[in-house]
Amino acid sequence: MVRKIAPAAALLLVLGAPVCADTGTTAANFLQMDLGARSVGMAGAFTAVADDAEALFHNPAGLALIDRRQLALDYISAPQDVSYQHAVYAHPLGQAWTAALGLNYMTTGAIERLDTAGNSIGNYNGTGLTAEFALARELGRGFKLGAGVKMVRETLDDRQAQAQAFDAGFLYDYESLRLGTALKDTGTKMRLGSDSLPLPQTFTFGASYRVLEGFLLSAEGRKVYGEKLSGAFGGELRLNGADTCDYIAFRLGYKARAAGESEGSSITGGFGVKILGRYIVDLAFLPYGDIGNLAVVSLTMMFGAPRPRAL
Given the DSSP bridges, would you call strands 202-212 and 195-197 parallel, antiparallel or unpaired? Predict the structure, then answer.
């Protein structure tokens, strides 16, 4: 499908994905796209959950919670023919360290170029790419720290921009309570054409609480550069499976949107299943009214034996 869109609107579409807010104040807003069907199903309230390879995106400190090598693959189909592909590999190192490498690629699909009179003069595409490396460490007494560096690149037609950024995160566990905070996408400005804009620096903070063995609740606050504070709440219920099925999970979330955010349902949901002790498939779906729907499919694979932990 080829979309008709004016050049100025196309610039905003690539600089800010159609499901993000306030696209005119920051560049590379595709960085704000929530990754991982588990997180999407919980409305993105994941800063204080972050216990799998997707922690690279949400809170790098959570990588320290991983006991086995993990490979996570995501595919996101977003409104207006925008799609995302995301891959993360996390590798425990010894008793306390974990390293992770992630790639994220966005494409807008074909966009029809229009001149000032509204006449068609061809098609072009917009893309976004990030590559990130992170390290996390278990400090003991429930404390975990993580940090990552990333390269960010955007293209729009024959124009290209690049920036470097870093992420940092913190987690603290106390019995069934986990507290977390993260600072993401702090870096250099991006220049695309005549525009020079900062990255969407984001500060998140949250808490999660395991009410029962299979029942988790989470809450999160989020402050993006140039935007108002927003919040999210999520829950996950895991039911034990049988035979080759380890568990089935059901998720629900609520987004407390800041003023100016694009339209979309405030209620999110999803489910997942773990089989054979090493494969997890997660799905999430989010309607965006007349502009389309967002669907996420995630596959996580675990390898090797659990690493030894310090006593």
Answer: unpaired
Q: pLDDT tens digits for 12-40?
A: 444 343 333 344 578 888 898 899 999 99
Residue type, 166: F
Amino acid at 272: G
Residue 64: Cβ-neighbour burial (10 angstroms; 0-12, 13-18, 19+): buried
User: Which secondary structure element, helix H or strand E, spans residue 56, and what is its range?
Assistant: helix 55-58
Q: How many residues does the chain have?
A: 311
CA atoms of 135 and 145, how far apart (whole Å): 9
- From the number of C-beta atoms within 10 Å of its C-beta (0-12, 13-18, 19+), residue 121 rates as exposed
Amino acid at 11: L
Architecture of the structural domain at 3-303: Beta Barrel (2.40)
Cα dist. 299→166, 248, 285, 302, 307 in Å? 26, 14, 15, 10, 22
β-pairing, 69-77 vs 97-107, is unpaired
Domain edges within the chain: 3-303
Q: Is a pLDDT exceeding 80 seen at residue 10?
A: no
How many C-beta atoms lie closer than 10 Å to residue 244's C-beta?
10
- Residues whose CB is less than 8 angstroms from the CB of residue 207 and which lie 6 or more positions away in sequence, other chains included: 48, 177, 178, 179, 180, 218, 219
Residue 299 tokens, joined: 């596959």
Per-residue pLDDT tens over the stretch 109-152:
777 777 777 777 777 788 999 999 999 999 999 999 999 999 99
Three-class secondary structure of residue 137 per DSSP: strand
Beta bridge partners of 148: 134, 167
